[in-house]
Specification:
By secondary structure, the chain is mainly α. The protein has helices at about 30, 35-55, 65-85; strands at about 5, 15. The protein has one domain. It contains 3 helices and 2 strands. A two-stranded antiparallel ribbon has the order 1-2. The longest helix has 24 residues, at about 65-85. The chain is globular. The structure holds zinc ion (ZN).
């Protein structure tokens, strides 16, 4: 199985994939460089998406907005991590 690398350019951190190898991941060092407000938003959105997955597994309807929110939050974290890495 191929390991996934941190999405910040030139970062050599890798880890084993949880689901599949096209997963995107930010290593701990770069994750800690993201402003707390963005991390909080992503964390909340992620938990909401996990709950939504459980509801979907139970056959309940789940609004797409939940997944849109987590995708947007991740995109913001990714941009912040890359930007912060430029200054490290
Ligand atoms: Zn990294």
């Amino acid at each position: 199985m191929t390991r996934i690398t941190c999405l910040v350019p030139f970062c050599r951190c890798t880890r084993k994939p949880t689901f599949d190898s096209d997963e995107e991941w930010i290593c701990d060092r770069h994750y800690s460089a993201i402003p707390a407000s963005l991390r909080r938003e992503y964390d909340q959105a992620w938990h909401q998406a996990v709950k939504a997955d459980q509801r979907a597994a139970d056959g309940l309807e789940v609004p797409d907005s939940i997944y849109v929110r987590v995708t947007e939050a991740f995109r913001a974290c990714k941009a912040a991590a890359i930007e912060a890495a430029g200054g490290i």
